[in-house]
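Troubleshooting log. The previous structure file for this entry was overwritten by mistake, so regenerating from the original sequence record. Sequence copied from the archived sheet and checked twice against the printout by T.R.
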Amino acid sequence: MKKVTKEELNEIRKAVSILRNHEKKAIEILLNDSFGGFSIPEKVCERLGVQYDGYGFNFNDDRANPELIELWKNEPELFYDEKTKERKNLKIEEVLVSEICSVFIDNWDGIESLKYQKEDFGDTALIEVI
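Regenerated output below.
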């Protein structure tokens, strides 16, 4: 067994920390950022090749859909809702996979945020990391 000084040990810890942070993967999740709740306009569903459900709830269970995220990033003007005559107020939040067990969407009168929990809490989890 090799003996190391405290300084060497600290350098090793820093190197390991850098490697771990470099390897961390993030998942992007699309959230509603205004009152009224999450929904997607019909033309976004058409663009993604998804049958519109009549309400815009098509992606409620798939907020981390990479195609949906990319469309929001690159063409946010498509998220204009013809019924309300407003552009959807959406935001992207990143979740570091290595730091959580489960993530769920907390909804306060339509405004959404992500909540993290270390222990598993069943069907309410949006993402479960095993």
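Residues 25-128 form one domain. Archived copy saved in two places this time.
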